[in-house]
Fold:
Amino acid sequence: VAKIKSGNAKLAQIDGYLKAFNVNRSSFNGLTGLTPQILIQDFEQVARIQVFGVYSRLAELKRTLPEHEAFNKISIDLCRASRWHVKAYLVKNFFAYISRCSGAERVKQLLVEIASLYALDQISAGLAHFLRNQYYSQSQADQVKMSIETLLERLRPEAVAIVDAFDFSDRELHSVLGRRDGNVYENLLKWAQQSQLNKSDVLDAYHKHLGPMMKE
Amino acid sequence: NPDLTKERKAASFDVNQLSEFIHGGKEVLARRKEILEFVESKPEFKQETPIEFLSREERYEQQAKNAVAMTEYATDAIDGSDFFGEGMYYQQLIMGRDLHALSLHYVMFLPTIQNQTTEEQLDKWLGLVITRGIAGTYAQTELGHGTNLSQLETTATYDPKTEEFVIHSPKVSAAKWWPGALGKSSTHAIVMAQLYTDGQKYGPHPFIVQIRDLEDHKPLKGITVGDIGPKLGINGSDNGFLLFNNYRIPRENMLMRYSKVTKEGKYIHPKHQKLGYGSMVFVRSIMIRDQSLQLAAASTIATRYAAVRRQGELVPGKGEVQIIDYRTQQLRIFPQITKTLAFLFAASEVRDLYLKVTEQLSDGNVELLPELHSLSSGLKSVVSWEVSQGIEQCRLACGGHGYSQASGFPEIYAYAVGGCTYEGENIVMLLQVARQLMKT
Structure:
């Protein structure tokens, strides 16, 4: 961090965002005009703030405590910083990966919608971090929720086809509820009939315990 | 089911195109189809009673039988160079989420023999492993120690008089605990033990140890071994415990590609301390992929069922509504679909980065390893947690039927949630990432 602050750090690509400058306000403005860069920047900002924040606290504690004690004292925040580091990577990688899709325009568009929903759902779950220091305003927070609703609506008619694209055979999926043909109820009944308890109509346990009780 | 048909007809994109992108190309999809047809054509793999209706012993037996047939047909069914792609898929089709007596043999034992032995050791062991003349596992974790390897208690003390190592469990907390297939199946184990030679301690090192007789399969003298009992999931596997009572093995059974102990007992250090990181990165990229596929399965089940299930008549006389039309249901399920892809694509990227780093490693360049090692630890942690939570959301989205084993969810959840603790407990992993971030 000290090197980053003095501008002398050489970082691998995975950690490169730590070197970027903080931005005061997010430029997120709902789905209209939304680009992957806006979402990536927001995640990197939150991750950077977490990492630098916990680093300062660690440095402060190390003045009075041995390193391992200082590390343990702030380990909850350290884990949080690690999580945001990973989440920032996941969002950035998601958009980078799908940008290589050479399929039809509609498939590319669908993948961007899926990736945007992923990012916005994560923002919604960790909104407090985005609202810190007014990086997100309350109105932007509201737009996150509205954007999620819009994306859910857009994905609704595509959902079954999207999961079909995972290409599970019934053998691999091994689920009566998730059968490809959707014939769930009749097969639930067939499945239940295989239960060991259904091998005879009256079980020994009845003769041994329940029957005598009822006849007492 | 007419509702599912209606949904499929309503989609605005070409499913095959998306599928090709997700799986990495047309050829991969075609191979998946061929492998499925191969498995379904073999009477040995016919599934009579669903595994969830079997007792633990019946499960173990069925899986052992399947494991033998699976490995016998493996070279006909899959491209041997793609063990972690086609191989894992082939295994999933036959074994489901239950694993088997040879699971660690191929995933851990074989790669360790390939990567950590000298030429002479490789000559001695590789043939035996490949022809299944022995069955192996990888015994690292102990009752008293998991992720913190530096504190493992099993000792390997070199005796220059006999040119042997004495493997010993000094107390009960040193018992090896958890390794897959260790309990009843394996004849050999790679054992991680604290190396002592020349009066000095040199930390954990790998040793190949025979634990059962190759004739009658009984445990050898000085060895106590058995199954650790039923677990949350994966009950077709005999995860085991293992204790040593001053058990002697030849010096040549220490895996010596990197560190060495000479006949006289002199310790020779490895050239690069960080070389061991590489394989962990690879195993974790496989894990992330495997975890993503469990969430893919859960979201497939929940989405299809949400299209089939009807509940609540909002407009009298109009019939009940497909539950997928409820916004709350969409919020439960669709983010799980998005996570699946985020994680799957990250797994691909980490695997590719690993291959790049491996190339650099062969020139002794370990520059990128710490960042990649840290990222893969963090991903493993975040992904396994979110996958298990996501599966639970999908289960709940199916109402009461999600609680039945017919849904598949109990098995999927039990299988996936294990990932939060194996290959490094998640919080410990996150703290390792934090250490690297603070250093950066």
